[in-house]
Amino acid sequence: MTAADDLDTITERWAALEEAAGTRPTTTWPPAMGISRLMSEEEQAERTAERADTNPEAPGVRPTPVNVDVLDVMTTIETGLVTTADWLAERVQRPALSWATGRGWSDDVHRQAVLLSTKDAADPRRWRFTGQRSAAAAAEWLALRLRAAPGPFRPLDEGERQAVENVARMGAELIGRTLGDARRREPVPHPCPLPCGGQLVVEGGDGEAPVVRCEDCGRTWTETADGAA
Predict the structure, then answer these.
(1) Separation CA 43–CA 167 (nearest Å)
(2) How far apart, in whole angstroms, are the C-alpha atoms of residue 26 and residue 176?
């Protein structure tokens, strides 16, 4: 997949990210699985309280549904894309044409020159430093620059292309992880229950069954249909 494809992914999946931001998370990461048996009584009590607070069936006033983690991801992606578009436009976007004949609006040559200048400045292919500056708009504009689409721009040099590719890759990866498309790997704050006492890690988040693995002895645990590990 190219960086331009990554930017297309951001544009196409932004609505799904907005939808996810409007819903409180119903699951936590990493998944608890059988790890709860390794937790202290105090930690288990805190986890139970957290589930009660996020359960829509629990009694009491519920806060407005919102997923702050997704909002943070959206802010990170949007800031990166818009900032990169601003930076790139300053470098590769040609200034609008300007002619001054000094002959006044009644002169045909002057009038045509002004109209051409106005049309060039209003070219919809230009990146705007004011107004609508969304993540989707920036991703679409940056993708067109990577594909060398025609317009009032010069071609990107290698450094500019690399900078856009880095931002595109970061944004696509964040969306994949947030929407559950990318496999994740996180350490577990409990030692292996076997004599090695090694570091546990949990892998999952991509739609496949999560797996807990000990990095020392290699033992793995998976969640069964009845919820046991």
Answers:
(1) 38
(2) 18
Return the H-helix or E-strand segment holding 213: strand 211-214
Q: Round to whole Å and give the CA distance between 41 and 76.
A: 36
* Other Cβ atoms within 10 Å of 202 Cβ, number: 21
The distance in angstroms from the start CA to the end CA of the chain is 36
pLDDT, one tens digit for every residue, the chain (229 residues) = 899 999 999 999 999 999 988 876 555 555 555 555 555 555 556 655 555 455 555 555 555 568 899 999 999 999 999 999 999 999 999 998 876 656 666 677 777 777 888 898 999 999 999 988 999 999 999 999 999 999 999 999 999 999 999 999 999 999 988 887 656 677 888 889 888 989 988 877 555 677 888 988 988 888 654 444 4
Distance of alpha carbon 151 from alpha carbon 164, whole angstroms: 18
- The two three-digit tokens of residue 7, written as one number: 């930017």
